[in-house]
Structure formats: structure tokens, C-alpha cells
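Sample intake sheet
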Amino acid sequence: MDTCCGQNVVASDGTAIAARFFAPAGEARAAVRAAVLIVPAMGAPQSYYKPFAAWLAAQGFLVATFDYRGTGLSRPADLRGFAADILDWARLDCAAMIEATLTRATSARAPGIPLVWIGHSLGGQILPLVPNRARIAKIVMVATGSGYWRHYAPKALIGGWWLWHVAVPLATRLCGYFPGKRLRKVGDLPKGVARQWRRWCLDPDYAAGAEGPAVRALYAAVETPIVSLSFTDDEYMSLRNTEALHGFYSGAPKAMKRIAPGDIGQTRIGHFGFFRAQHEHSLWRPHLLPELALPAL
């Protein structure tokens, strides 16, 4: 059984980020194996990752989850006019969570343990923008690729066109934020996040193209080892999307693992399926757990 507690982590600009920390219990508490920061996909609340985080804690890891500002438990009462973009999520929220997770490791009598970044979709895209990413020992990307809409899997192309050319520009102008929950697309997002994400997804080189040479250089400067887990039935991330994004990480050693549902005796994984508890024995244990066997720093 794991122990879990919630707290607000304060970013450097004073914004409170809702977070949860899952710690091993019993004998496992005496020998924490590593710290793990789970960095969410766009529109995915930290509650979605709770079963996965609790399982990791039961395996001896100190685990942190959080909601980006303007989303989930970090959302203000009214999103209209709330100022935030994806750069804020990376440079402020993720940076604060790295420090908070390592601080929690020290207070749990596990100073010096390695920190693993598990980034789901957007969580693997924004890593280069995080100023203190050098503190990360290993990166695991799950269902992560470029968001360029023309390279989506065929079944998502029509929805992608509608989202970027109609829904986002029109809804953000009318509402002052993106009302994704009402539209049954992604979830509610701050206006600045939705508009910036749209600009990325309309660019063939995604963030590396939309944000210019400085951000492209940040991708190339990442040297931390990367393991990528992608899925053949991902409705958003085609093989082309996946390979494109990982190509930007030109300076990092990479291990690319592409998994078909049939490979693990399942009929469906998709963009969000990896984190469902039903995949403990088909995905978590055989494909993730070996990647978390890291030596102490």
C-alpha cells in the first residue's frame, strides 16, 4: 500500500500548482529506488494518472503528479482572461515540480536518488523548455510525438482540421478561453495555451518551428537518455509524428519502442491507454519497470 498526500507547490512567479506525492509504505520506504515525475498530456488531469502513480509507489518509487496552471485542481474559478501559455507550464510549473519532487525525496530520507521524467504526449514535448531539466537522470516518453495536424493518424485528420481551423480560433475569441469540456475536445484550457498549441500544431516542425531557432536548439541540446514508448493504434500520434519529434532530440541517446496491441495480447491501447490499470502486467511491468532500474547518482 502506498501513502499519498496533496499539496500546493508554488512556482517562482507565486502561482500555486496543485500536486500529489505518492510515497512507498512499509519496508519499501526504507529503500526508495528513484523519484518519478509524471508530466501530463494536454487536458489530462493528474487524477487520470493516480492508479499508475500508486502502483509505482508500491514498487518503491517516490512519485509526483500535478495539474498545470489553469487546469484540473490548479484551475481558477473563472478561466476567462486567465493568463498562461505552454511556456509557462514548462518554465514555471514543471521547473517547480522538479524541485519539489527532489525536495520531497530528501525529506523522505532518500537524498541523491535519480529523478525520472515520465512525459505523456505534451509531457514529452515540452521537456527542452524546462530550465532545470539537467536534474533529470532519464526521460520516458509515452505516446509522444509532434502535434503537426497533417501527420495525424488518418482517423484523426478531420477532427484535427475542425479543431485548429474552426473550434479553437472561434471558441477562444467568444469565450476568452477554450471550452473544450463543452465541445468534448481535450478539455478546458486557458486562451494563451490553446492559441499557442494551435500555432504549434499548424507548423510542420511543431514547437521547434513555431517558436524559432532558439527552441530548436534547446531540443538538440538535450543529452539525457530517452526511452520512447509509442503505439501503433495511437489515434493522434502516427509513426511520422513520433519520429519527427524524436528527431528534434538529436543530441540525446534514444531507444524507440513501438508496440502494437496484438504484441501484448490486447485489442486496444491508443493515445491514453498506457496509464490504465488493466495494463499493469502487459505494459507497466515488462516495458516500463526495467527502464526505471537506475543507479543512484
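Comment: DSSP finds ten helices and ten strands in the chain. Residues 42 and 122 are 6 Å apart (CA to CA).
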